[in-house]
Amino acid sequence: MYELHFGVRRLSQLLIFGLIAATGCGQQPARVGDFAAERQRMVQEQMMARGIHEERVLAAMAKVPREEFVPADERAAAYTDHPLPIGYDQTISQPYIVAFMTEQLHPKASDRVLEIGTGSGYQAAVLAELVAEVHTIEIAEPLARNAEATLARLGYKNVHVKVGDGYKGWPEHAPFDAIIVTAAPDHVPEPLVQQLKEGGRMVIPVGGAIAQQLNVFEKRGGALKQIAALPVNFVPLTRDPASK
Ligand code: SAH
To answer: What is the rounded distance in angstroms from the CA atom of residue 29 to the CA atom of residue 100?
Structure first.
């Protein structure tokens, strides 16, 4: 299963750009040791200044230690306005994108959320601060195991990590109040539509290799209705050939 990932994309193609172009080019990385202050500044400059206003979401972004989810040599850059490499040709999303997607999910304290693309586990940790249960699926086993270990070390007990092809969702725990997909398929996977509760939200990038659109959907009458969309660049959602 891992081989699929090594050849996925070059790092330069993995960068995730939000609606607002990354402003951090050339900026100095944060100094190690003052992460709490860096986190506060990230919330003010990268989120509040760009229109993220939901207080619970801002509080979660101000709490989760992003430096714990990146490789040791990227810790100093943990709060910069960029995605960062996490190994296996994958990236942890730009902080603004994490906040934007989280806000668009309209997370409620009683929600059970499905995430596709665990990666570092950072997005799952942000959600874990806001909802009752997070189920997250990662296709690259080493990333899944590493994320699981990080989340356990930080004391997150309401995140459940599974290795597998997220295209199929996690039927044993369906239906979900909200679904967040952090890798881009070329169409919305039908199993995910089925596993979303009526009235629930799905935030998902969809598109081809070069450009995608980040869609916010709400399930109404059994079908997805588009609420919002913005151009983005995510890594592709890969498929496990054995699972087709
Ligand atoms: N949410 C992550 C970042 C996601 S990067 C974080 O907070 O760090 C996208 C992730 O999706 C990668 O780790 C990639 O391996 C994973 N992925 C790609 N295709 C997948 C699939 N079919 N099922 C599950 N995970 C997938």
So the answer is: 23
Tokens found for residue 141: 């086993």
What ligand 1 atom has the least distance to the C-alpha of 235? 9
Cα–Cα dist 148/205, whole Å? 24
The CATH number of domain 4-237, selected from 3.30.1330.10, 1.10.10.10, 3.40.50.11720, 3.40.50.150: 3.40.50.150
Query: What's the average model confidence in pLDDT over 75-91?
Result: 95
* 93 belongs to the catalytic site: yes
Phi, psi of 191 (to 5 degrees): -60, -30
Which tokens go with 84?
A: 């960062």
Report whether residue 140 contacts ligand 1, using a CB cutoff of 6 Å: yes
Contacts (Cβ under 8 Å, ≥6 apart) of 184: 204, 205, 206, 207, 212, 232, 234, 235, 236, 237
183 lines ligand 1 (CB under 6 A): yes
pLDDT tens string 227-244 = 988 878 788 898 888 775
Question: Hey, which of 238, 239, 240, 243 would you mutate to test ligand 1's pocket, going by the most ligand atoms within 8 Å of its Cβ?
Answer: 238
Residue 29: asked if its preceding bond is cis (omega within 30°), the reply is no
Ligand 1 close to Cβ of residue 107 (< 6 A): no
HSE-up of residue 160 (Cα within 13 Å, Cβ side)? 11
With the most atoms of ligand 1 within 8 angstroms of its CB, the residue from 61, 97, 138 to mutate is 138
| pTM (two decimals) | 0.86
Instruction: Flag whether pLDDT at 155 surpasses 50.
Output: yes
